[in-house]
Amino acid sequence: MPSRAQGKSRAAKDAQFADLREPVYLLAPEARGTSGKAVVWRPLGYLTLTVVWVVLAVASLALAVLVLPWRLTGDGAGPMGTSPGFAGSPLRGVVVGLIIGPVIGAVSATFLCVSIGSALSSATYLGRSLLPAYRREKLSFTTFSQGAEATGPASMFGFRTAFSLIPVRLTRWTKIATLIAAQGQVVNVRLWVLGFWWGIFYVFTVGWMLWPAQGAASVVCTAVSVLLFAVLAYFVWRNRRNYPTIMPAAYRGTPYERSWPNRPVAQKLGAQNGTVKKPAKRASRSSSPSP
Known about the structure:
It is a single chain. The protein has one domain. It is built from ten helices and four strands. The protein is elongated, with a radius of gyration of 24 Å. Keywords: Membrane, Transmembrane, Transmembrane helix.
């Protein structure tokens, strides 16, 4: 846990917005040091974490894309429309899709974000652990959730969840990796909305292909699949400015919140009020020179 002195040292820099063209530290200077033993063993630790998270990312991707068609076509199964569960009723298939689609989408989106973001972070720290420039400092640290902000069963029972692999030296690349993981680490309704539309699109498209729809029905189903994918793409684009604002409470008030790609506080307030201030350079050009 950071001491009070560390908190004051970090808070003194919080008011400054960083574009991350140069690295920014998330820990106070006295909290960045590490031991010689940790320097020796941390490449092995980060290598292990990288392998684990890559495996989980591949499994999450398989869950999001491959598990449903594999399950429906396994064991010599025939067309889905002739299976006893559906009894040739497309309406029954649509109802089942509306039930399981959002669940598959939300779960797979959460797992994908956490696993891909963590895999990118651990691989980055593995590379840094082999560079002499990082020998005298920690590479990452861990903080804990506050209240019920964390995704998962631990929050339901009042336990705290650890948010690990937070970069000590924040750059644009490590900010992107941490941002991806944060989308799934905290309760994120926007991610669930995207997962909902992905699940509906995925289950519907796989369903009519394996049914299979034929003739005019296949044309109609193709059009509906394109429409569902367009809705998904619309929500992904619409929420593009909100992704950087999704973060654990422990990140707020730190350089993580006040750095690229987040917007400065003045710009946020101006966007909310509909009045965004022009850059100072442009104002100086239009004004007459002072005597």
